[in-house]
Amino acid sequence: MVYYNMKMRFLTKHISLLTLILLFLAVGCGRDEHIETIIIGPYKVDCVGAFEQECYLEFNAESQQWEFFYEGIQGFDFEPGYIYTLKVRLEDRGTEIQDVGRYAYHLVEIISKEVASVDERPPRIP
After folding, report:
1. Maximum distance among all Cα pairs of the chain, rounded to whole angstroms
2. Distance from C-alpha of 93 to C-alpha of 85, rounded to nearest angstrom
């Protein structure tokens, strides 16, 4: 009987631990993480969104044009004179916050950093 009780306690502890691990994994998998690749131009420009600010230029591959990128990119140290190809993670801010974009951008990886002129307006097509 003592052996049976020890065995049951052992199984109960391990099943509880396994259940806890699976619960944490299930919660972690529920996050909607979205990764994108973006191209940032070699200089910033004055722009007006919710207020006057400096914006990055983002290359839109579909239209083959540079467009204003109003958001900051957390973890990205911009250096003028380069065209960057970046892998970024988008964090959904929701729609409750006014005067900011829906997503916060977080740098995941700098894929490439190519020298480009800051005097060429608009920048060359990457």
Report:
1. 85
2. 24
